[in-house]
TrEMBL record:
Transmembrane segments: none annotated. InterPro entries: PEP_carboxykinase_ATP (IPR001272), PEP_carboxykinase_C (IPR013035), PEP_carboxykinase_N (IPR008210), PEPCK_ATP_CS (IPR015994). Belongs to the phosphoenolpyruvate carboxykinase (ATP) family. GO terms for cellular component: cytosol. It catalyses: oxaloacetate + ATP = phosphoenolpyruvate + ADP + CO2. This is Phosphoenolpyruvate carboxykinase (ATP). NCBIfam families: pckA, PRK09344.1-2, PRK09344.1-3. Pathway: Carbohydrate biosynthesis; gluconeogenesis. PROSITE patterns: PEPCK_ATP (PS00532).
């Protein structure tokens, strides 16, 4: 438990006023001077608030400690808390229904309509709240490492914690770039400490996260969870990259071989091993979560990483563990009040404990985070708790489109109360909560790029083998790493394959270092009737989930999924 802590010691007030504070006011006031007209027109009362634009990390630490109750961890990271909301609020996400974007948006439960008038009400409510704050933080940065396709993002918020978070997650401009930043392409008004009016038309609660593509603005009310800003930027890039630039945005990690320079994209939902498997000592990390596959190569959208901290250890995830130092933010992490050592096993606040850190904190990160080379391999990761999918399958282009649209993994018993058997999760394009356009549009672009550049695609199951959850066992990480290494070396591409029925997958007959019975799940199941029952059950689930997209895909893609007699 976090015990109430004493007011932290700060520099004596007289020294701070006469030295540091005077410098802060002068420095950041002059930086933002040419933008005063913009902020005045937006409704900010410049005579009442102090704007701090791209404040240095040390000053954001000071403000968060002084004003928000943050503390410094034993490793130098800032520990802060997001309040009541410790995760995203997908049911409160809205997109404004307006003439410039309405025909492109995939409307439904993910993208819920909001009228323009309600957006204007909430935008004014956010700015009114920000006007009541003594300090207003502004961070100007970029989304996208490739200058040809990046956008300029401005974040306006009232918490130093939020400013530092976006300092880490966006690409940080040089002083010269900041001086010539100009008008932003996208603005986030984060007034998350202040609630939305739930009686306003279209509001379902006191939380509202909304995007207006005509105004290119985002408004946040009623949630202080910093991840809303990160995923808001991704949603905008998920819209702009295909629509404005003709490029493919992806929820994926990516790395590049040190020797051959070959690029691999990893798709996968939570718990499938996307972050773990893309961290490879023989390869450089391009990024761990959001990328764009462009006409000339691959680039990271972000300037940092947002890693889960639950049960984090130096042994299991050394790169992430060692990245948690000065400049990083630990979010909702419990700590020892005497030593300030984080307790990553304590989930009394939330299981969704996180750390945000600049990508430069990863030793083998490729800086700048982009490569002018097309991918050689795509790895689609799934964690199958039914224990029936092979640990590796080579996909045809049609199968790649099918599994990309399906986006399958499974929740396992024990993760939530009342879960007694595996629960399938189908998240289209491996990014359903952030999808903006129809999934078929992303799938079509993926298929075109794969065909044009002759990219191999692999379905890798990091889940159970020899039985479903409870009777079988999780595929050992050493075998999965061996499979990924064989993908990168070209060994698997040259191997011999056999057909795996029902799902009609091509699976290798052998791979040195991986047991034969592991490669073909049926061989690992002692009870063959139970195996056939589980694979049929999963096949039916696939068919039901894919029915949503059947009318929008070609017959050959429809037929690429599991077939039942």
């Amino acid at each position: 438990m976090v015990l109430p802590h004493h007011t932290p010691y700060v520099t004596p007030q007289i020294l701070h006023k006469n030295y540091a504070q005077a410098h802060d006011t002068e420095s950041f006031g002059s930086l933002i001077g040419k933008d005063l007209e913009y902020f005045s027109q937006a409704g900010f009362e410049m005579d009442k608030i102090q704007l701090k634009r791209n404040a240095p990390v040390a000053q954001l630490y000071e403000d968060a400690i002084r004003n928000e109750g943050a503390i410094i961890s034993s490793s130098g990271a800032l520990i802060n808390f997001s309040g009541k909301k410790t995760g995203r609020s997908p049911k409160d996400k809205r997109i404004v229904y307006e003439e410039t974007s309405k025909d492109n948006i995939w409307w439904g439960s993910v993208n819920i309509k909001m009228d323009e008038h309600t957006f204007e009400i909430n935008r004014e409510r956010a700015i009114d709240y920000l006007n009541t704050r003594e300090n207003v933080y502004v961070f100007d940065g970029y989304a996208g490492w490739d200058p040809r396709y990046r956008i300029k993002v401005r974040v306006i918020c009232a918490r130093a914690y939020h400013a530092l978070f976006m300092h880490n997650m966006l690409i940080r401009p040089t002083p010269e770039q900041l001086a010539d930043f100009g008008e932003p392409d996208f603005i986030i008004y984060n007034a998350g400490q202040f609630p939305a009016n739930r009686f306003t038309k279209g509001m379902s609660s006191t939380t509202s996260v909304e995007i207006n593509f005509k105004r290119m603005e985002m408004v946040i009310l009623g949630t202080e969870y910093a991840g809303e800003m990160k995923k808001g930027v991704f949603s905008v890039m998920h819209y702009l990259q295909p629509i404005r630039f003709g490029q493919l945005s992806l929820h994926s990690s990516a790395n590049v071989g040190i020797e051959k320079g070959d690029v691999t994209l990893f798709f996968g939902l939570s718990g499938t091993g996307k972050t773990t498997l893309s961290a490879d000592p023989n390869r450089l990390l391009i990024g761990d979560d959001e990328h764009v596959w462009s006409d000339t190569g691959v680039f990271n959208i972000e300037g940092g990483c947002y890693a889960k901290c639950i049960n984090l250890s130096a042994e299991k995830e050394p790169d992430i563990f060692n990245a948690i130092k000065f400049g990083s933010i630990l979010e909702n992490v419990v700590y020892n009040p005497a030593t300030r050592v984080p307790d990553y096993e304590d989930i009394s606040i939330t299981e969704n404990t996180r750390c945000a850190y600049p990508i430069e904190h990863i030793p083998n990160a490729k800086i700048p985070c982009m490569v002018d080379r097309q991918p050689s391999n795509i790895i689609m990761l799934t964690c199958d708790a039914f224990g029936v999918l092979p640990p590796v399958s080579r996909l045809t282009p049609e199968q790649a489109s099918y599994h990309f649209l399906a986006g399958y993994t499974s929740k396992t018993p024990g993760t939530e109360d009342g879960v007694l058997e595996p629960i399938p999760t189908f998240s289209t394009c491996y990014s359903a909560p952030f999808i903006v356009l129809h999934p078929g549009r992303y799938a079509e672009m993926l298929a075109e790029r794969m065909a044009k550049h002759n990219v191999d695609c692999w379905l890798i199951n990091t889940g159970w083998t020899g039985g479903k959850f409870g009777t079988g066992k999780r595929c050992a990480l050493k075998y999965t790493r061996r499979i990924v290494d064989a993908v990168h070396s070209g060994e698997l591409a040259k191997g011999e394959y056999e057909n795996f029925g029902t799902f009609n997958l091509s699976i290798p007959t052998s791979l040195e270092g991986v047991p034969r019975e592991l490669l073909n799940p049926e061989l690992a199941w002692p009870d063959k009737d139970a195996f056939r029952k589980e694979i049929r059950k999963l096949a039916v689930m696939f068919q039901r989930a894919f029915a949503l997209y059947e009318k929008d895909v070609e017959p050959k893609v429809r037929m690429a999924g599991p077939q039942l007699e």
